[in-house]
Amino acid sequence: MKKRTPVSAIMTKNIIAVNRTDDLETAEKLFKQHHIRHIPVVSGDVIIGMLSYTDLLRISFADAVNENETEVDTVVYNMFTINQVMSKNVVTISSEVTIKEVAELLAKNEFHALPVVDEGQLVGIVTTTDLINYLIDQF
């Protein structure tokens, strides 16, 4: 295992993101369509928040029973905006941070995803799943 491998080696570069003006129904569809758990909220290429599938489940029991359901049928999403539900105090990292440093940061703060930002631009996202897959590849 290389000790100085940058997170850019394992991060997801094809970013699925939402804008703060999108609705929560759109976000849930993206979570399900792409089988993801975290979506950066952006204004242009600048990250302004993070939305997790757990955030949606906190405000609604929508589709909690059947995650394979592709239809979104919930009225509660009309009561909230992405801006109200997203985490606003987002910790970001640069693409040059080592995988070890990312693992320590995720473990210490109990995060499950970190946006990767270079020169103010969102360039990727790294999740605990990315770290686990990296470790599996080492064996």
From TrEMBL:
Keywords in alphabetical order: CBS domain
Keyword set includes Phosphoprotein: no
Coiled coil segments of this chain: none
Keyword Transit peptide: no
PROSITE patterns for this protein: CBS
Annotated ranges, domain CBS: 11-70, 86-139
InterPro entries, A to Z: CBS_dom (IPR000644), CBS_dom_sf (IPR046342), Diverse_CBS-Domain (IPR051257)
Protein name per the record: CBS domain-containing protein
